[in-house]
Amino acid sequence: MTKLNIPKSTRAEGVLAFTTMLWGMTFIVTKRGLGDASPLLFLSMRFGAASLIYFAIFRKHFSGLNKTTILRSLFLSIFFFSGYAFQTVGLKYTSVAKSALFTYMFAVFVPPLQFFLTGKKPKFLNIAALVVVFIGMLIFTAPGNSSLNIGDYLTLFGAIGYSFFIIFLDRYTGKENPVVLTGVQFFMSAVVAAVMSIFLEDSFAYPTVNLFVSILYLAVPGSVIAIYLMNKYQGITTPVKACIVYALEPVFTIFFGWLILQEGLTSSEFLGAGLILAGVVFSELIGALRARKKTV
Fold first, then answer.
1. Rounded-to-integer distance, Cα 222 and Cα 276, Å
2. What burial class does residue 110 get, using C-beta atoms within 10 Å of its C-beta: 0-12 exposed, 13-18 middle, 19+ buried?
3. Contact 78, 169 (CB under 8 A)
4. 3-state secondary structure of 293
5. Integer Cα distance of 205 and 218 in angstroms
6. Distance in angstroms (rounded) separating the CA atoms of residues 122 and 239
7. What domain range includes position 78?
8. What is the rounded average pLDDT for all residues in the chain?
């Protein structure tokens, strides 16, 4: 029996695909949770809970912190927080489908930003696959004839934050412990969100079961597990290919919306999902074929 020689990058992309499944559920959980708490306070509770759980599990990793690691972690935290803050506040005013679409716009921003910031040119076939994926995204989460609202624009700003985060995360994950990077991002996001909540919104939180369940899911699978996996495995692949894999996130979002909220899928949504999957599979097949040629 021939043993499958799966490239390390392909295994990493499989882990990232699992991560997008966890994230797909967060849109629904966040949307429901925002009915019982103001956005920034909700975000602070999410990452505050995530920080406590994370430090309890990985406290040994933080014993040897140095100045360089702290500065890099704080730098990443700027983009990490901005992405989540704009997305969470935006989700208060827009639909889950539109939030998923505009969040994924970071995939469009990454290639040119990556080139200007790092000089790393994306491969043509990855760009071609990304175009297919994005066309699928437009069809899959098409908001119909509705006009853009404040929530859509806020989500786009969040997408820009995510794109910078992905690019610089790719630069630092090979140099720093991803456990430390993730922990500092959680803690700083919780602190900054709490401070901003005091000055930028009418803070409120109702102690409901729905809010508790929402925070619990977002803190553990949606934050501690998902973002740890992202920080650990994204550096093994390229930012462009990571963006393509992340396109599965809105697919999972719509699926969970159908499963939990009984929201049906239209024919155009099925078509869009097919294009997204085709783009991801195309990119993976190209990578696998190239890896096989090198080993022959």
1. 22
2. buried
3. no
4. helix
5. 16
6. 9
7. 8-121+147-266
8. 80
